[in-house]
Amino acid sequence: MLRDDRFTDILINGLAICAALISVVGTGYIINHAFQARRDEDDASALVSNAISGDIESQRKLAACYVNGCPPLPRAEIIGCAWRKIALETGGNQPEDQEQARATCGRLSSSDIEISENAKASLQRRIEARRASAGVASP
Predict the structure, then answer these.
(1) What are the backbone dihedrals phi and psi of residue 75, each rounded to the nearest 5 degrees, phi first?
(2) Under 8 Å CB-to-CB from 60, ≥6 apart: which residues?
(3) 1 band by pLDDT with thresholds 50, 70 and 90
(4) How far apart, in whole angstroms, are the C-alpha atoms of residue 33 and residue 73?
(5) How far is 98 from 87, CA to CA, in rounded Å?
(6) N or C: which end of the chain has fewer CB within 10 A?
């Protein structure tokens, strides 16, 4: 009987150690993902800020993110289309930008195109306001 109690104690202690290790590893996993989510948010915020500042590469990347999805940004082809059109204007009507805008916007319905045009106008107002506050003339 004493031998069975000792085995039970060892088993319970072993399981307690396993549970503690799993808890520590799980906590590390959660913390790591929380930090990664924060980095993703910071990256997305910087990307949006640069795009609104008129950076053509940021505008292209942001459009691609809205079309394909880049956490934490949601997939939103309507907004992606708006950014593609803005990049088209900012980049001087480059053939690559024309093709990307055609591919992105061509999938949208006519009502979605109208929404995209409204979004583009709103984004352009933000871009112009940013340029004005920075004292930069419009191109």
Answers:
(1) -70, 125
(2) 83, 87, 91, 97, 100
(3) very low
(4) 16
(5) 9
(6) N
Give the tens place of pLDDT for each residue, 94-122.
899 999 999 999 999 999 999 999 999 99
Tokens standing for 7? 């085995």
Q: Which residues contact 76 (CB under 8 A, 6 or more apart)?
A: 66
**In this predicted model, what pLDDT tens digit does every residue of 126-135 receive, in sequence order?**
999 988 887 7
**Cα atoms in the 13 Å half-sphere on the side-chain side of 135:** 0
Cα separation, 117 vs 132, whole angstroms: 22
Give Cα 89 distance to the centre of its chain: 23
Q: How far out from the chain centre does Cα 119 lie?
A: 18
